[in-house]
């Protein structure tokens, strides 16, 4: 081997040593002890008791199989995910907060979002038994005496980055940005009873509803004569009632006032949900499948917070959240069999004192 070959090998070895980064373990703070209840809620948008309860459901599924190589503990993984939801920021920021790399933060957010979303059957559910249906109808009736109601339905747009590919433009909504059109049904306590987070932003609310499991249950008589209240973007049918666009008498005015106030919980639930988890307001830069899991996971966390009487998220300092933009443009709907709105204005509201 001549001298030039030895010099080349030496330079290659030096280059490889330069490229190899040292293994570094960052300091990880115990955030459950470092902050009082108020400061903890400001940073993670949920109280400590809610976080502990959630961890009991998913700890076995997401715990590391070994403690070697300074594995991240389940509680730190959960807090990293909540921090990402709470800021809607870059993954590297959430990773630095817990003391892990951007790559590790990405894996944790993806895995935890899926794990939390799997709790949907437990925390997001429509009434099933006769007693649950009667109780829900009574709670809606106590708002403005609107009868037979078991839910308020609407859609909201969650901003995403362009998914790319030949179908990307399907995700561009009427406002010109890419989004998912997410349908939810809410109850008077602002809990979300159903969520559909798979439709692109260009889809109309009525289209999403007619393709949903809830629609099939309604038309099959699963909830008997129960009603769902909606805005004018939906078709007025035997099981879905909407306001009059141009009320012509006092009865229709009274009906409009009652239904608008009755469907108010679904609007308020969007406000609380997006204030609690700004990632839903600022938009997601994750993969489409992960973004869908994040949306469902945030709904699960919202309901878990409601179960713990944590209905009002703490204020966000120096952060202006985008307003919840509505897309309830009226479209021509196909004629439906039956008309609950007409029945109510003829047989119920004229006799309402």
UniProtKB/TrEMBL annotation:
Keywords: Hydrolase, Metal-binding, Nuclease, Nucleus. Its cofactor is a divalent metal cation. One of its GO terms (cellular component) is nucleus. The keyword Metal-binding applies. This is DDE Tnp4 domain-containing protein. Its main location: nucleus. One of its GO terms (molecular function) is hydrolase activity. Belongs to the HARBI1 family. Residues 153-303 form the DDE Tnp4 domain. It is found in: Nucleus. The lineage of its organism: Eukaryota, Metazoa, Ecdysozoa, Arthropoda, Hexapoda. The keyword NADP does not apply. InterPro entries: HARBI1-like, HARBI1_dom. Pfam families: DDE_Tnp_4 (PF13359). It comes from Macrosiphum euphorbiae (potato aphid).
């Amino acid at each position: 081997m001549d001298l030039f070959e030895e010099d080349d090998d030496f330079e290659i070895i030096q280059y490889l040593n330069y490229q190899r980064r040292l293994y570094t373990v960052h300091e990880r703070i115990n955030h459950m002890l470092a902050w009082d209840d108020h400061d903890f809620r400001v940073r993670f948008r949920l109280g400590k008791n809610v976080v502990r309860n959630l961890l009991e459901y998913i700890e076995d599924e997401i715990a590391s199989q070994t403690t070697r190589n300074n594995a991240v503990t389940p509680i730190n993984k959960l807090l990293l995910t909540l921090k990402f939801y709470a800021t809607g920021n870059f993954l590297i920021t959430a990773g630095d907060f817990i003391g892990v790399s951007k790559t590790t933060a990405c894996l944790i957010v993806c895995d935890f979002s899926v794990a939390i979303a799997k709790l949907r059957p437990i925390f997001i559910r429509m009434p099933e038994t006769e007693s649950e249906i009667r109780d829900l109808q009574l709670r809606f009736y106590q708002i403005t005496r609107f009868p037979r109601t078991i839910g308020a339905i609407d859609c909201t747009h969650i901003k995403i980055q362009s998914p790319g590919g030949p179908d990307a433009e399907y995700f561009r909504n009427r406002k010109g940005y890419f989004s998912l059109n997410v349908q939810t049904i809410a109850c008077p306590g602002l809990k979300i009873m159903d969520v559909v987070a798979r439709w692109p932003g260009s889809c109309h609310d009525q289209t999403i509803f007619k393709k949903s499991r809830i629609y099939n249950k309604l038309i099959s008589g699963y909830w008997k004569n129960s009603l769902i209240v909606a805005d004018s973007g939906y078709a007025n049918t035997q099981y879905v009632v909407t306001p009059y666009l141009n009320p012509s008498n006092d009865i229709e005015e009274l009906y409009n006032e009652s239904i608008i106030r009755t469907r108010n919980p679904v609007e308020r639930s969007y406000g609380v949900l997006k204030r609690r988890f700004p990632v839903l307001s600022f938009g997601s830069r994750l993969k489409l499948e992960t973004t869908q899991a994040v949306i469902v996971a945030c709904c699960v966390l919202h309901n878990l917070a409601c179960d713990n009487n944590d209905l009002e998220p703490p204020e966000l300092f120096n952060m202006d959240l985008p307003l919840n933009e509505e897309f309830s443009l009226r479209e021509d709907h196909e004629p439906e069999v039956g008309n609950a709105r007409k029945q109510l204005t003829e047989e119920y509201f004229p006799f309402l004192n």
